[in-house]
């Protein structure tokens, strides 16, 4: 195995590579790949030592995204050498295992540095002249998101999070008494309660749909939605991957059913954006939302809102601010993120985050997350034979969100949850008794190793 040893010495960060370790254990790597690993790490070591920590560019902490892209050409989802290198791109504390991607993810150095540097740049010179460049950087970020998500940049707005994006769609549609909105009962409150609050004002009817637990087939998941549709249905709003059960809905099929009937298909992608290799045009949804600070590993308080091109005119904006006339005249989704002053550094860093995903490859990111989640479930089943999962192992029925209950839904695991963090350095989430699916929520991402999946299972088995 390649060991990229990170030594933080005062303000200096040194990445070095042990060639002995490589020759002993890295027999699976090709020479060219080894060369890339070696030269990338060596370059980082040389460049990083002489520069103060605050001035480091992204390429000096972690490796350059171009180097990462070169290395990744040979990667496979289970190639631990490569994924160790990916892990090194994140500023994770030592002896700490982050399994909480459904909630909040770290940004790789490349993204962090972009936020830091642009923030400092603004603070050094907040003139209109200096900040003029952010308009173009924002355009580039939208273009990058369009590329990543299989959409046109004209269909992309950069919002502040999924909550805001969901609410923009809810407030933007023209709904009235007599209309019906179908919701999955596993939707997040921002795609659930938020519809109900508007229904009180506008008088439409909300219908909640349940799906069977631990589904094995797409049919089981599609049927309840189909049955709920009437000739009054105007909207079908669902979550791509549930944050409470981990179940992944067959989004393309549901969108196609909605499209055939002239129903607006809204997809909350908070748990798929950055985790699943998304092609929105192929999915066929009318709107899609996500948070940059979750699986995408982007800047905090940034989000994405996709509105299908021919609906941009139809939807009302939530916020109208200076620049509105131009945004409206452009006929693009920029009419939905015309907020007044933004965190320009965060918006600019969204584009850099897309470059990070492209350096690894969005399909490889998805494959890796699926491989980690599958391995985790296997390790948990071995250590905790009585454990129950709310998600199935069938490919496509879940992705990176794993909910496991080690025993009974009425057991209180609060102490075990705390000990996982304090004793084992594992961060996850616990859905307590009374939740729809009580249990531990464990969400591995590209910064986790396969070894950690076994360690997490060991720790959970020891503490429950
Ligand atoms: C499915 C889903 N939708 C929306 C949200 C809200 O995300 P944010 O807090 O980033 O707006 C979450 C957060 O966990 C979520 O899981």
Q: What does this 3D model show about the protein?
A:
With 464 residues, this protein is α/β, with parallel strands linked by helices. The chain has three domains: 4-89, no CATH class; 119-356, 3-Layer(aba) Sandwich (Aspartate Aminotransferase, domain 2), CATH 3.40.640.10; 364-463, Aspartate Aminotransferase, domain 1 (Alpha-Beta Complex), CATH 3.90.1150.10. Helix content is 42%, strand content 14%. It contains 17 helices and 15 strands. It has helices at residues 19-25, 31-49, 65-72, 80-87, 109-124, 128-131, 133-149, 162-172, 193-202, 218-228, 251-260, 280-283, 324-330, 344-360, 362-383, 414-422, 450-463, and strands at 4-9, 12-17, 97-98, 156-159, 180-184, 205-209, 233-239, 264-268, 287-291, 303-307, 388-389, 402-405, 426-427, 429-431, 439-442. The strands form four sheets. Strands 4-10-9-8-7-5-6 form a seven-stranded mixed beta sheet, sandwiched between helices. Strands 11-12-15-14 form a four-stranded antiparallel beta sheet, with helices on one face. Strands 1-2 form a two-stranded antiparallel sheet. Helix 2 packs antiparallel against helix 3 (65-72) and helix 5 (109-124) runs antiparallel to helix 14 (344-360). Mean pLDDT is 88; it is low at 1-59. Pyridoxal-5'-phosphate (PLP) is lined by residues 102-103, 161-163, 188, 190-191, 239, 243, 268, 270-271, 291. Residues 102-103, 161-163, 188, 190-191, 239, 243, 268, 270-271, 291 line the site of pyridoxal-5'-phosphate.
